[in-house]
Design a protein that fits this description.
Number of strands: 13
Order of helices and strands: EHEEHHHHEHEHEHEHEHEHHEEEE
Number of helices: 12
CATH architecture of the largest domain: Alpha-Beta Barrel
Bound molecules: magnesium ion
Number of domains: 2
Largest sheet: 8 strands, mixed
Radius of gyration: 20 Å
CATH topology of the largest domain: TIM Barrel
Structural class: alpha/beta
Length: 349
């Protein structure tokens, strides 16, 4: 089938968090074909990525034949190479991610199969979901057995705060729960080492994004210093080229590519190949959303998917109808064709 049209739009979000996300949060990409089938994808990069898709990538995509996963990979390579002067990382790759996912959705819909079946046989019966957020009582009540909370750095009082939060989470979630901490690039070497010592009684599984993603050597050194706590990261890294650099530097114990940012399923599969060569577990960022979930279900990704339930009664934009949800802490993609979701047109411009 031939692609006849591709359009990216920025949704009319009502409940998006401020700062860069106001204008640069997720985009929706739609591809249409000459056989009447359309596919939808989800990318990052906001209004800037909309311009990348509609203003440049679309001219490379329209009239292309898509009949196989190989065709998608070839198109990915074309988009990557033509966007190198302004791309390689960041917004351009976030835009390509949305395009890639829309075309995977399209091909799976054309074949009447869920995306994960096009990736390979199902490798997990149920995927363990972990709840990210600040409401462990609620997560436990919903049946989650794994939880990640935020602990950003402001001053020395944060050591005490981190101990309190860890103790509370461990008590609520139980001895067998996985507990993780996201630092969102606010810690440094000294803080990370001290935190590992202060929190040693709480069996923390990983510290996420402790330094900036540019400090590969610093992270590789911390891996050895805070063991057995693992150093994770990768939501701010892009494509197999970027993850190859992480592997060469030995920077991280666990990789967390965001499938809607790092280059889509196509890049995700290439990243997984490198991860397997190096024995590195891959736990996609926001992997409980369908875009990552299909990859987790049918690939060598670790059996762990991030879910963001937010807080009880908080308003949320339901952009995708049919998203998978965790039941008793376990999540799986649906058997519906494509990614199994439809876009909520009320939120589109
Ligand atoms: Mg994070």
């Amino acid at each position: 089938m031939k692609i006849v049209n591709i359009t990216a739009v920025y949704p009319n979000y009502r409940n998006v968090v401020p700062s860069w996300r106001t204008h640069l949060w997720q985009i929706v990409v739609r591809v249409d074909t000459d056989v009447g089938i359309s596919g939808y994808g989800y990318g990052g990069g906001g209004r800037a990525a909309v311009e990348v898709v509609n203003g440049h990538l679309s001219e490379l995509i329209v009239d292309k034949e898509i009949d196989s996963v190989d065709d998608i990979a070839k198109l990915w390579d074309t988009l990557y190479s033509h966007s190198i002067p302004y791309g390689r990382k960041g917004i351009a790759i976030m835009a390509i991610s949305g395009v890639d996912l829309a075309i995977w959705d399209l091909l799976a819909r054309a074949e009447g199969t869920p995306v994960y079946k096009m990736i390979g046989p199902r490798q997990k019966e149920g995927i363990r979901a972990y709840a990210t957020g600040a409401d462990p009582e609620w997560y436990r009540a919903m049946g989650f057995t794994a939880h990640k909370f935020s602990q950003t750095w402001t001053s020395d009082v944060d050591y005490e705060v981190a101990i309190e939060r860890s103790e509370k989470a461990r008590k609520l979630m139980g001895q067998n729960a996985l507990l993780m901490i996201d630092t969102y690039m606010t810690w440094n070497r000294e803080v990370t080492i001290k935190m590992a010592d202060h929190l040693k009684n709480y069996n923390i599984y990983w510290f996420e994004d402790v330094l900036t993603p540019d400090d590969l050597i610093g992270q590789s050194e911390l891996r050895r210093m805070v063991n057995p706590i693992l150093i994770s990261g990768g939501e701010h890294e892009f494509t197999h080229h970027g993850f190859k650099n992480l592997a060469d530097a030995g920077a991280l114990d666990i990789w967390q590519p965001d499938i809607t940012w790092c280059g889509g399923i196509t890049a995700g599969l290439r990243i997984l190949e490198i991860a397997q060569e190096h024995g590195i577990p891959v736990v996609p960022h926001r992997g409980g959303e369908v875009w990552g979930l299909h990859l987790i279900a049918a690939s060598s990704c670790a059996n762990l998917a991030e879910v963001l339930p937010g807080s009880r009664n908080a308003a949320k934009d339901d952009l995708w109808i049919g998203e998978a949800s965790a039941i008793n802490g376990v999540i799986m993609p649906s058997e519906e064709p494509g990614f199994g979701v439809t876009v909520n047109k009320d939120l589109l411009p």
